[in-house]
Amino acid sequence: MDITSWQEEDFQAQAITWRRAFHEDPEISYHEDRTQQKIAHALQDMGLEPVLGTKHHGVTATITGDQAGPTVA
């Protein structure tokens, strides 16, 4: 999945698709193993290197831009 050419509408459409998929497969709070794995795989498909949370089921990835300075998204 090459997201470098995506427009805002593409991100919105994908976010809606993911949201619907997550709600079709609910998990108990603090036990979101399948959700964590789905998000990690999606980030890997985008060419990112996800880092899985150790205490909970968070997922993070660093996106390096082409301009100087910190950015948080």
What secondary-structure arrangement, pairings included, does this model have?
Blueprint: H1 8-24, H2 33-45, E1 51-52, E2 59-60
Antiparallel strand pairs: 1-2
Q: Which terms summarize this structure?
A:
73 residues; mainly alpha; 41% helix
Explain what the structure shows.
- The protein is mainly alpha-helical and 73 residues long.
- The chain has one domain (8-60).
- The protein has helices spanning 8-24, 33-45, and strands at 51-52, 59-60.
- Strands 1-2 form a two-stranded antiparallel sheet.
- The longest helix is centred in the N-terminal third of the chain and has 17 residues, at 8-24.
Order of H and E elements: HHEE
Stretches where pLDDT is under 50 for at least 5 consecutive residues are none
Shape: globular
Distance between the termini: 20 Å
Major pleated sheet: 2 strands, antiparallel
- Count of individual domains: 1
Tell me how many strands there are. Answer: 2
Task: Give me a quick take on this structure.
By secondary structure, the protein is mainly alpha-helical. Helix content is 41%, strand content 5%.
